[in-house]
Design goal:
By secondary structure, the protein is of the alpha+beta class. The chain is 19% helix and 31% strand.
């Protein structure tokens, strides 16, 4: 249920189109370019929106603001070219969801409109298992 909860909390297609109204702190599992677990890190989600190419992305404040971050398994942090405002980093929604291990949520407000398809949940879970969660499941 954790992955479905991420979608119902943040993804506009599953939360009734509700935008983030304030930065939301989340915990991510940091991985290296080989997708191996490095450690825990906190970032602030700023917004979730479609990028100029129509893909739903999570825009966040990353104190490193390094566009060269390679989190492995094809996940590369973007700092420009995908609708980022100055100081923002971004990732496709599923890519960021696969690295989340904790986030704030209000169970009353996060009921969501619909659950994400099982195939999407499985895809995000697989991305986590192929990286930081390999020895945690």
């Amino acid at each position: 249920g954790f992955i479905s909860r991420i979608y119902s909390t943040f993804h506009p297609a599953y939360n009734g189109g509700q935008p983030l109204i304030h930065p939301s702190p989340v915990g991510i599992a940091v991985t290296d370019s080989s997708a191996r677990f490095v450690g825990w890190h906190a970032i602030a989600l700023l917004r979730v929106a479609q990028d100029p190419h129509g893909e739903v992305r999570v825009y966040f404040f990353n104190p490193n603001n390094d566009g060269g971050q390679d989190w492995g398994n094809g996940i590369h942090v973007s700092t420009s070219g995908n609708g980022e405002a100055y100081g923002e980093s971004s990732l496709p929604f599923a890519a960021l969801a696969s690295r989340l291990y904790i986030f704030h949520s209000d169970t009353r407000a996060d009921a969501g409109e619909t659950d994400p398809p099982a195939s999407e949940v499985d895809r995000v879970r697989q991305m986590a298992v192929e990286s930081w969660a390999a020895d945690r499941v």
